[in-house]
């Protein structure tokens, strides 16, 4: 059973507008939630994270929101730039369980 | 620092052949991982290691074996390759504890095709 779900395989946004990527999870024991970004022919790289005790974390153009009651998190990119075009993986971590759990990814295309 | 390196970058195998993928990291990380990425399936953990001489199964371990004889190296073996193992394989390493969540460093990937 998928513990981390990204239900949108792809998203297309115009340059300068807001990109919103969504992620749902089922395990209420997760302590941290993260977003990793992947360009073609490269390995994923860490983008931003949020602790389960917070509801928002901001880093420049990137903000992650966490709604624990809904078991939902989202990544907002404002303003979107063509260089943001990549696959974004949502991930979650539980201190009692070693490996990260990744979602299936959402491919973001930012159109100039 | 090279970070995480993977050898080879590309490989084509025939069904039934065997091969070993090598991962090396120079960050002195305790933990290492092997993932596969398939279209529509995201990143799936094959095996991982929390220290030299230790290995553990991930989500999709069948058909693969691993060894961590040295802290800096993590080998992934396919004893008898099958077309279902056609994929892009990523190695990663991280420190232990909570840092493993946001300090997981990935290699560039190995594209494997099994015909």
Please tag this protein with its features.
A: 112 residues; mainly beta; B: 115 residues; seven-stranded mixed β-sheet; 50% strand
| Low-pLDDT regions of chain B | none
The proportion of residues in beta strands of chain A is over 45%
Mean pLDDT across the residues of chain A is 95
Shape of chain A: globular
Oligomer: heterodimer
Integer-rounded radius of gyration of chain A: 13 Å
The SS-based structural class of chain B is: mainly beta
Q: Please write the string of helix (H) and strand (E) elements of chain A.
A: EEEEEEEEEEE
Uncertain parts of chain A: none
Total number of strands of chain B? 11
Helical stretch count of chain B? Answer: 1
Question: What would the principal axes of the Cα set say about the shape of chain B?
Answer: globular
Outline the biggest β-sheet of chain A.
6 strands, mixed
Q: Note the beta-strand portion of chain B.
A: over 45%
Main β sheet profile of chain B? 7 strands, mixed
Number of helices of chain A: 0
Q: Span from first to last CA of chain B? A: 36 Å
The total beta strand count of chain A reads 11
Most residues in contact, chain pair and counts: A-B, 24 and 27 residues
Ends apart, CA distance between termini of chain A: 38 Å
Fold and architecture overview:
- The complex is a heterodimer of chains A (112) and B (115).
- Chain A is mainly β.
- Helices cover 0% and strands 58% of the residues of chain A.
- Chain A has strands at residues 4-5, 10-14, 19-25, 32-38, 45-51, 56-59, 62-67, 72-77, 86-94, 97-102, 106-111.
- In chain A, strands 2, 4, 5, 9, 10 and 11 form a 6-stranded mixed beta sheet that branches. A 5-stranded antiparallel beta sheet of chain A has the order 1-3-8-7-6, with no helix packed on it.
- In chain A, strand 7 (62-67) and strand 8 form a beta hairpin.
- The relative contact order of chain A is 0.34.
- The mean pLDDT of chain A is 95.
- Chain B has 115 residues and is mainly beta.
- In chain B, strand 5 and strand 6 (56-57) form a beta hairpin.
- The model of chain B has no long low-confidence stretch (mean pLDDT 94).
- Chain A binds chain B through residues 6, 9, 31-32, 34, 36, 41-46, 49, 89, 91, 93, 95, 98-100, 102-105, and chain B through 4, 31, 33, 35, 40-45, 48, 50, 56, 58, 90, 92, 98, 100-109.
């Amino acid at each position: 059973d998928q513990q981390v779900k990204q239900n949108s395989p792809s998203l297309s946004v115009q340059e300068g507008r807001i990109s919103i990527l969504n992620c749902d999870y089922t395990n209420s024991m997760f302590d941290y939630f993260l977003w990793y970004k992947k360009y073609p022919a490269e390995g994923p790289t860490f983008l931003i994270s949020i602790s389960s005790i917070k509801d928002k974390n901001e880093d420049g153009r990137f903000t992650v929101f966490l709604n624990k009651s809904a078991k939902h998190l989202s990544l907002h990119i404002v303003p979107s730039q063509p260089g943001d075009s990549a696959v974004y993986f949502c991930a979650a971590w539980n201190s009692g369980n070693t490996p990260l759990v990744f979602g299936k990814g959402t491919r973001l295309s930012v159109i100039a | 620092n090279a970070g995480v390196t993977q050898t080879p970058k590309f490989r084509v195998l025939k069904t039934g052949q065997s091969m070993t993928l090598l991962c090396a990291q120079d960050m002195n990380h305790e933990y290492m991982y092997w993932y596969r990425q398939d279209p529509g399936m995201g990143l799936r953990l094959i095996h991982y290691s929390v220290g030299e001489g230790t290995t553990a199964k991930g989500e999709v371990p069948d058909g693969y074996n691993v060894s961590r004889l040295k802290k800096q190296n993590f080998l992934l073996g396919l004893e008898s390759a099958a077309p279902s193992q056609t994929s892009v394989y990523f190695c990663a390493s991280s420190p232990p504890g909570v840092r493993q969540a946001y300090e997981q460093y990935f290699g560039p990937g190995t594209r494997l095709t099994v015909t």
